[in-house]
Write a structure and sequence with these properties.
Distance between the termini: 35 Å
Number of strands: 11
Largest sheet: 6 strands, mixed
CATH topology of the largest domain: D-Maltodextrin-Binding Protein, domain 2
CATH architecture of the largest domain: 3-Layer(aba) Sandwich
Helix content: 40-55%
């Protein structure tokens, strides 16, 4: 399972991943490899061993012999990856394919004509077309066109709750917004903060707006923003979501000191595990965080459910927000597209999916359900997989989906809303002004 620090590192990496001003025409793909090999640039963390094994497997395969091509994997340390990728994509030795976060992290490359549009290739190849969960494949798209192939685990945002507290106070996991508000009132009466929130990190605040905008207005609202239309921030659903967040804050749903509580130092998880807060909206890595810090709580009292529906809203309760996965994207100047596509088919294989499961990740492949019994927590793994499998839409985390130049000012405006330095209407106006 991915850790919270990994999630934020990926998000922070997206901030500097691309800069349209720094993009130049790249040279012929593959020139960075040795002996004419095609190059694949990957984020060099522990999970890169799965990609390394895939490369070895492909280079020894019949597919490689048929295309007369081979892949060379280049691992880049995580802290260096964004800058190294940006430099490489502007050089004659640009990689043939590269790891990324989808959405805004590759939009500037797409706009500069540096990416292969994979839509038709996927549609024509049954392995690629049927090999991945549709919502995850779509989450990596821009303007309805596919520019990435899923290649790592899924990280949906989930509403976690303390089963013992819920049983003690006769509460049920909320399926509607009214039920959530009723739970809040009963918990506050008992002296328990309804929700833990690591507000000093800001990105945990973002998760609330992501889900509320989806539940109120549907995934189409943020799709407009993701695809480069800042006017999308003016949709009534964004204002309603901001107003709803302010109502929660003013009503004490997050307690009084949430802006000084962090997730990254373990503060918010501790409040949740120790029963001082009853619920926690967080990415799927919350399970592994709790298992590492409070194993007794993780095994006995940690519950999970979908974010509730909003009465009268356009969004389906099955919709998911979070980090769908990471993707391989292909350089438009690659010298051997056939070999690259043959390699990408391995990402849909059972062998590849088994390696992800063994490492604690939940694959985005369509046939992974039968493999999850081998996961560290099969019940939680199955919940995550089914959640994404059944999702009509999976919205990429806003801080990874928007243009990198917009990410930091967007997060600043979100924090101002949460700490009371901005009103919902000013919040909307500020977002509309981001270019």
């Amino acid at each position: 399972m991915e850790s919270y620090s990994r999630r934020w590192l990926l998000g922070a990496g997206a901030t500097t991943l691309v800069s349209a001003a720094g993009l130049t025409a790249c040279g012929s793909g593959g020139s960075g490899g040795s002996g004419g090999a095609l190059t694949a640039l990957v984020y060099g963390d522990d999970e890169a061993k799965i990609q390394a094994a895939a490369v070895d497997r492909f280079n020894a395969s019949a597919a490689a012999r048929r295309t007369k091509g081979r892949i060379e994997l280049q691992k880049v340390p995580g802290s260096e990856y964004p800058a190294k990728l940006r430099t490489a994509m502007g050089s004659p030795g640009a990689p043939d394919l590269f790891f990324n976060w989808g959405g805004g992290s590759v939009k500037a490359y797409k706009d500069a004509g540096q990416l292969v549009d994979l839509t038709d290739a996927i549609a024509a190849d049954p392995v690629l077309k049927n090999g991945f969960l549709p919502s995850v494949l779509a989450a990596g798209a821009l303007g309805g066109r596919d520019y990435g192939i899923p290649m790592r685990g899924m990280q949906p945002v989930i509403l976690f709750y303390n089963k013992s507290l819920f049983a003690e106070h006769r509460l049920r996991p909320p399926t509607t917004w009214d039920q959530l508000l009723d739970n809040n009132a009963r918990l506050k009466k008992a002296g328990i903060t309804p929700f833990a929130l690591g507000g000093s990190d800001i990105w945990p605040e973002l998760m609330w707006l992501e889900y509320l905008v989806d539940r109120i207005g549907g995934p189409e609202v943020f799709d407009r923003v993701k695809n480069g239309d800042p006017a999308g921030w003016g949709d009534p659903a964004v204002l309603k979501a901001a107003e709803t967040v302010r109502q929660l804050i003013d009503d004490g749903a997050f307690g009084t000191g949430f802006s000084s509580v962090a997730y990254t130092n373990g503060g918010a998880p501790a409040l949740f595990a120790r029963g001082r807060a009853a619920m926690h909206l967080m990415g799927s890595w919350e399970y592994s965080t709790q298992l590492g810090k409070f194993p007794g709580f993780a095994r006995k009292d940690l519950g999970w459910c979908a974010f509730p529906r909003y009465e009268g809203g356009a969004g389906d309760i099955r919709n998911v927000v979070g980090n769908p996965t990471n993707y391989w994207s292909v350089n438009a100047r690659t010298s051997d597209k056939d070999t690259v596509l043959a390699f990408l088919r391995d990402c849909a294989s059972e062998t590849y999916a088994k390696a992800l499961v063994a490492g604690g990740s939940i694959p985005a492949t369509s046939g992974a359900a039968k493999l999850l019994a081998a996961a560290p927590n099969p019940e939680f793994a199955a919940f995550q997989y089914q959640m994404v499998q059944q999702a009509p839409a999976f919205t990429l985390s806003w801080d990874q989906a928007v243009d990198p130049a917009v990410q930091t000012p967007m997060l600043t405006e979100i924090d101002k809303l949460f700490v009371g330095k901005s009103s919902p209407s000013r919040f909307v106006s500020a977002l509309q002004g981001l270019k």
